[in-house]
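Question thread 4412

I'm putting together a teaching handout and wanted feedback from people who do this every day. The idea is simple: show students a protein as raw sequence, then show them the structure tokens that encode its fold, then repeat with a second protein so they can compare. Below is the first pair exactly as I plan to print it.
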Amino acid sequence: MEKKDVRILVVDDEESAADSLRLNLTEEGYAVDTAGTGSRAIELFDQGGHHLAICDLQLPDMDGLEVMRHMKDARPNTEVIVVTAHGTTPKAVEATKAGAFDFVDKPLDFEELALRVQNALKHQELIDENANLRRQMSTRSEYFNIIGSSKPMQTIYETIDAVAKSDANVLIVGESGTGKELIANAIHYNSLRARKPFIKVNCAALPKELIESELFGHTKGAFTGAHADKEGLVQHAAGGSLMLDEIAEMPVELQPKLLRVLQERSYRKIGSEKTYAVDFRLISSTNRPPADAIRDGLLRDDLFYRISTITIHVPPLRDRSEDIQLLTEHFLHMYAQKYDRACLLYTSDAADDL
């Protein structure tokens, strides 16, 4: 917010002090109103429009603390700086506990006060920005191609926002078809690695005898059919992200090797003694509850703890039925565009059936 848009209320029964503050703050570019009594201050404040108040605690008609409390009750986001006379610091501390942003002592040092005014306005701006962000999050129905406005989906969006910029390993757990890959995309493309490769591997789709070679590469002659050196997918993901889809389907005998790569940030190709450094962010997914996979011997618990620094649970659509209409409209619109058709509408009865 620019200074010319900021309105400040100065409350002080000493007319010369109030005028001095008004002149100085006006020179700084602020719009300023003054009041010499608590009742006049409340009257002006209730007319609205003040972003900040500078209020003396000693007023002729009422306690300045009472005026401040009225302001905070009426508009909690308005910041208040209280002014105290010598020897009234305990009262200023009481005002701070009651919601005052800060307090200053008389005689006023305007440079010091101007800095506190700036800090108070910055604090107010930050609170407003956070409130706006929460409002946006509470109403987001689409996020990086993920469709859903239900509370569980809003929680997932917030988690993605919170973790995407870090390098923490993420495990996404959810039934088939719940959108785990879309969430992985959102994490990568919202991260600092977004301009680097995003390599995806479906552990369930690769034959057991090939998955190690696909991940870590091999040297020429390492096994029958290895006619040339080959780079592994972990190397292709260097600087970016690697997604291991259905990680519980990875052969158990290969899991310790992946664990070492995550711990040491280096690996060896099949048939080579040379160690290669690698830097990637791991995003894993599974349609099995991890506890069941560990119990059934499909997932090592030490690997689980390494890959699940952050765990995101994706609910099935049956647990977020309020998103069905959004998804229906999304797909109707998408296929109407794809096949150059008019977008179909559906009746309320059809919506109820869905």
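The second pair follows. I'd like the answer to focus on this one:
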Amino acid sequence: MNITCKLAIAKNNIIKLQEENHQLRSENKMILMKTQQHLEVTKVDVETELQTYKHSRQGLDEMYNDARRQLREESQLRQDVENELSVQVSMKHEIELAMKLLEKDIHEKQDTLIGLRQQLEEVKAINIEMYQKLQGYEDGLKEKNEIIARLEEKTNKITVAMRQLEQRLQQAEKAQMEAEDEDEKYLQECLSQSDSLQKQISQKEKQLIQLETDLKIEKEWRQTLQEDLQKEKDALSHLKNETQQITNLKKEFLNLQDENQQLKKIYREQEQALQELGNKLSESKLKIEDIKEANKALQGLVWLKDKEATHCKLCEKEFSLSKRKHHCRNCGEIFCNACSDNELPLPSSPKPVRVCDSCHALLIQRCSSNLP
């Protein structure tokens, strides 16, 4: 009777261990599914961000090439203007055409500078977005490391449970050996007894067969547990490899940020060169205006200097970068673009030149009065 009670207790323990094993398997599967989904989502995000960064980098390269081309063109234009100034100082009409070309170039340069500044702001916004996404990836890595630590804890628990199961199996085997020894002794004693004792012996043999089958089942179950442990170890190694790949991607992103900063430095140097070029062009413009003033003085006209005028003669608005100065070719005074947006031929120049609104009205009145 003691043997049967022990066997029943052992069976109950085995059933409980099987249930615990099933629960652990289901929990491990759920954790693995969640980690795989999370890793797939992070991989897709990293790939999209790399593509956007490559596109932005190509755009910056194109901008840099365009700026270099514009610098070359501007240097060529500057050489042409200097040659024309040195050769054609005596020719008034060609100097005026060169002035118009210089003014157009300055306006175009200002527009390109504004466009480059807007593109720089866009690049700064992209860098801020990339930095925020990097922080999100670092948080995701921390969560993954926590999940890996939990998985390792669970694997440790499973190994402890396996060791306990092995100890219980050893105890069951010892109990079986002891039961076999007791059965042999009991058979020797029962040879002299009646048929009723033989029936009990046959029942005990049946119970032993059942125990053997249970032991075989437990061994098979142990093998399956070992295989599951191997699979979980493989999954953990796979997760570690993926985390290493993410850290490599992070290093590549930092390298790209360094390259972006170098490109910014190059852009700033080019912007300084453009500003110096603009200053030199403004100086050349002032020289041309001085030459014109000298020509006007020779002709008896009063040519007002740029430094002497701070407001428009007609509307009295203050001059600035957006509101530029313009000389009237008839009276020599300085006006804004709105008050001198007229062109008429003068006695000194048969071609149409810039004239202020008041001179324009007077000249038209003279022409109408001279007509028959």
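Top answer:
Good format. For the second protein you could add a caption like this: Residues 116 and 315 are 33 Å apart (CA to CA). The first strand starts at residue 326 and ends at 327.
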